[in-house]
Each structure stands twice: as structure tokens, then as C-alpha cells.
Amino acid sequence: MTADFRPIETAPRRGAAIAMRAVAKSFGPAKGGYHALGPISLDVRPGEFVSIIGPSGCGKSTTMLIAAGLMSASQGQVEIDGVALDRPLTDVGIVFQDHLLLDFRTAIDNVMLQQQIRRVDRMVMLEKARELFRKLGLTGAEARYPRQLSGGMRQRVSIARALVHEPSILLMDEPFGALDAISRTQIRHDLERLWLDTQKTVLFITHSIEEAIGLSDRVLVMSQGPGRIVEEILVDLPRPRPAHLGHYPEFVAYADRIYAIFEKLGVYSFK
Amino acid sequence: MSLSGDRPTARPRAPLLSAVAADRLLRIGLPTLLIAIFLGLWQLSDTLFDIPVYMLPRPSDFVPQFWLSFPKLWHNTWPTALVILGGFAIGTVVSIPLAYAIASSRMLEKGLYPALVILQIAPKTIIAPLLIVWFGTGWMPQLALTTVMTFFPILVDSMTGFKAVDPRLFYIADSTGASRFETFRYIRLPAAMPYIFSGLKIGMVSAITGVMVVEYIASNAGLGYLTLWASAHLDMPLMFAAILTTAFLGLVLNLVLTSVELLLMPWLKRDHDS
């Protein structure tokens, strides 16, 4: 192994395990700073789809950034496949709420940024990118610039960018938060199909109960100030899950449980 | 009753011009017409508004100057153009890397920013006499002022450009394992390009102002010198020709910049294919 930590191969890899051990985060000075998160501990099994749901500002995004090695934890540590993480994780794809595409690159070139920086074979990755475009319903959009695409399509390109290098982990921070309800349902389904095909480990941050139950094997519910994981819900529903989950009593039961937790936490107070 | 109606509908007559052609005609024709009217009124200014020709020469008085005094105009265009390009080049080469350094370093930004803001808003032409004392007459003080005047707009706009990148894009870059240089090359520089070019365009206009000011004060060649010479000799037609040549020079330089901009940044083109 060289000092260069770039994965060279682009062959599909099985998902990696994510473990967070008593991770806490404070901002500002060590004394009197703002204690934002934790301590939290969580384990995501290889190939598992786990959602973290919680109210705004509960530290969900911070949790994801720490899991990706992009933000350092004040306490505790992150392990990927049992190895402590001390630098940004590169065997990963990240999707944020905003597409964060480069407006000076065409859709396909935005995805191929991964190829340029990781210096892998161009033809191989171009083929992967085209295949992802096909699976994500982006065929024909390759040569378009982001501003020529709809919001839903931009986010699909952003998902393709996070998957083209076949990472073992996919981290998503409210990826459908900025989309309309119709696009959201479709893209949720497409993501589920992609995940079923590839079995990557997914850590999915959301504030939508429907998305969390519609996608996850397991939902972790977080409370606010400082963010802590208060409840774990195993979602045992057949896949692929339908578009309109509200029809199914099992779904309603899971949703009720999350609402009940939120109410207990004071996230909702309906009088 | 059916929705389409029972009346035989008249076949729509084919328009004389397609919508695109009509739009183009309007876009080119209307400004041309307005300029023609303006020039026509100017030509008649002497009879219509009683403005003496020795104060405001008519187009028919100064337009022939472009070929009658062509050697004079041509010989004086070069020194001016060279100083503009030289000062512009130095200003660009110094300011863009400095802008990147300031945008990347908190220390540099905190230390330099107040001074830069003060210098940026201060009028630069006021130091022209000082530069003449330091560098004498000729192209040296011209180059110095042109450099100073292009430097600031390019610096400020480039800094804005380098800082305009969404910080979360650096997360994406880090997760690909990008080095600092790769992040600069693939993300920061191209993202800053539109800002840099807007700075370059303002810088170009400032460069022309800079060289003209010094040429007015102390010089023996250049378009500013020619303009002032014509003014001193009350040669109004030549003066108008010199002023218009200067304006034309600025136009050409700006056109070059815009062409380079579109060449480097094809994504800024109008979406004609969508």
C-alpha cells in the first residue's frame, strides 16, 4: 500500500461498517462552548440502510460530517470497518440537501470530477456514469449544464456523482429536502432500487418520517440540545416499498411510533 | 357545439418575417436607427440649435479626419495601447495570485483587508503628479498608474470569486481525496472565473483612464497627448477624432476580453440548445 489513499479500483465493493463510539461535539471554546452533540454511539452494519431522524438543529448533519471524517469529534471516535478514522473518508459518496454541482461543468462532467481527482480509468468510469444516468432517468441530460436542469434532475446528478466511484458508504444529508413532493417520491424509489442493486452502507439524514420509514432498515430518532439518539426502530417492511405508504397499516404503525417519540420529546405540542 | 367551432377558420397567413428574423431586425435595426437620428441632429446642430461649429464640429467636419489624419492617429494609438496592455498585464499577474492568497488565509485577510478597502475607494488618479516626480515623463509613470488602477478592481473581484464557493463543496472535494491544488484547479479557479473576468473588464476601463490622465499631464506621444495638443491648437475636428479613436480602442480591448471570456467559459453562453 502506498501513501496515496485513493482507491484505484472501481469494482463494486460491499458496504463498510460504520461505528461511532461515544462521539461528542462542542463548538467554540473548550470551556463555555456550545455542546451540540452527544455523546452518541451507533453501529451501521455493512450494507445496511440507516436513517437518522430528528428536529432541525439536533446535530444530525454534524453526526454525518463526523462520520465522514470531514469534521473532527471533540470526544470519541469513528471506526470504518474497525479502523479508526483520522482523515476525510474517501471511500464514500456524499449528497447534501443542495445539489452542490459545479455550474461550469456539464452534468456528466460533474460526475466525472470523481474520475479526474481519483485518477481512475476514464473510459471505465464514463461507462459507469452513463449507466447511472440511465438508472436515474438522466439519459439525454449528459451534456447539459446544471442550470439547464430541473431541481430534481440536479439532485439525481448529485447522487450519480456520489455513486460513480462505487464507494462502500453513501452519506446523505436531507438529500430530498429541497424537492417537490412528486419528485421526492420518485427519487426515493429510484434510490431504493439503486441501493438494492449495490448494497452499499447508507447513512441517511432526514426530517421526513415518510422518507425514513420508506427507505430504512433501521431508524434512529435523535433529540435536541445536545443531540442524542433516544430511540431505535427496526423497519420490517418488504422491498421495494410502494410510493404511497399511507395505505399500509404497518407503515402507519411505524409513523405513529416516531410521532409519539417526537411528542414525548416536545418536538410537537398539539393542543 | 364542438370546441373547435363550426365556422370555417381562416388559414393563418404566413408571417412576412419569422419571429427570429423579426427579433434580430429589431435588435440591430432599432439602435442603428437611433444612432442615425442622433448623428443627423448633430449634423444639423449648427442650423437647428445655433451651436457654433468651432465649439461642436459636425460629423462631416471630424469624420474625414480619420483618414486625413490617419498617420497621426495611428502613431499615437500604439504608445497608448502598449501602456494599457502592459499595465493591465502587470496588474492582472500580481492581483489574481494575491487575491487567492488573501481569500485562503485568515491572517492575510485580517491584516490586509482594511488597507485594501481604503485604497480601493480612494481615487487613484490623484497620485499621477507624484508618479511623474518619481518616474519622470514618458511611459514609466503611465505604466505605473495603469498598473495601480487595474490592480484594485481585479483584486477585489477575484477575492470575491475565490470566496464565492459554497464551503460544502470543499467537503465534497475532501471526500474525493483532492489535494489543495486539485481543489483549486477543479473547483475554486473555474468558480471564480466569472468574477475575475468582471474585474478584468472594469480593470481595462480603469487602465485607459490611467494612461490618459498621465498623458494629459506630461507626455509627448499617445492619444491623450494628441487630444490635448488638438485642444491647445483649437483643432476641434482632430480632437474629436482622437477622442473617438480612444473610445474605439477601449471598445476593441473590451471585445477581446469578452471573446476570451466566452472561449474560456462556454457555460455562460445562452442556452440555445435547451
Give me a quick take on this structure.
The complex is a heterodimer of chains A (271) and B (274). Chain A is an alpha/beta fold and 271 residues long.
* Separate helix tally of chain A: 7
Strand content of chain A: 15-25%
First-residue to last-residue Cα separation of chain A: 61 Å
Say how many strands of chain B there are: 0
How confident overall, as mean pLDDT of chain B?
A: 86
Biggest interface in this structure? A-B, 30 and 21 residues
The average pLDDT score of chain A comes to 85
Topology-level CATH name of the largest domain in chain B:
MetI-like fold
Radius of gyration of chain B: 26 Å
Poorly predicted segments of chain B: none
The structural class of chain B is mainly alpha
Q: How far do the termini of chain B sit from each other?
A: 39 Å
State the assembly state of the protein chains.
Answer: heterodimer
Share in helix of chain A = 25-40%
Highest CATH level, the class of the largest domain in chain B? Mainly Alpha
Q: Order of helices and strands of chain A, N to C?
A: EEEHEEEHHHEHEHEEH
The proportion of residues in beta strands of chain B is under 5%
Uncertain segments of chain A = 1-10
Estimate the global geometry of chain B from the Cα principal axes: flat
The sequence of SSEs of chain B as H and E is: HHHHHHHHHHHH
